């Protein structure tokens, strides 16, 4: 049976199908590739050229190996586990060092920052009803002065701050105990991750709260 020429004329071509697929999945493809490429510098080099990173890793190593007689850190250091602005980074590295070792744990934590900043901006853009393509601007900002100098806890807090702001705006839009608890938890984590981020987060949160008032 011969096909109707009119049906053939109206059928989408392979090029049309490809264009439609790219329109639907183009952002996910570009975003995923950029995430993958951004992780390469974290895992491809033996030593990261980050100024303060050795000092952070040394502090985590003292904590992680404090009771290990092979290192004998207890003889030279007194362990103080009070809450400090860098505590979030140290805790993550300490816990992840059990399955991955100190070097592997550090790479995982650095990867969380590299993934978190663009993902956080995507979540925040979606919260405001903006295009997810705006989140692509986060990728060139990953490699900034703060990261290069070794302010890794600050960078982690910056990424987490985006999620905290989105959660706070959701709470202002529809206050519920669950949303309030999530916003408070993320905000507290961002504060502990990097103390120098709290003023920025506080000002933005106040602005969101004012904008959400009827």
Q: What's the SSE pattern?
A: HHHHHHHHH
Low-confidence stretches: 198-211
Please indicate the percent range of residues in DSSP E strands (runs of 2 or more).
under 5%
Question: Percentage of helical residues?
Answer: over 70%
Mean pLDDT, rounded to whole units?
84
Straight-line distance between termini: 66 Å
Rg value: 23 Å
Q: Strand tally, please?
A: 0
Alpha-beta classification: mainly alpha
Q: How many DSSP H or I helices?
A: 9
The biggest sheet, with number of strands, parallel, antiparallel or mixed sense and barrel status, is: none
The geometry reads as: globular
Number of structural units classed as domains: 1
Describe this structure in words.
It is a single chain. The protein is 71% helix and 0% strand. With 214 residues, it is an all-alpha fold. It has one domain. The protein is globular, with a radius of gyration of 23 Å. It starts with a helix and ends with a helix. About 7% of the residues have low confidence.
What is the compact description of this entry?
The protein has 9 helices and no strands.
How would you describe this structure in keywords?
214 residues; globular; 9 helices; mainly alpha; 0% strand
Write the layout of secondary structure elements.
Elements: H1 5-10, H2 14-44, H3 53-64, H4 87-127, H5 138-141, H6 145-149, H7 152-173, H8 177-193, H9 198-212
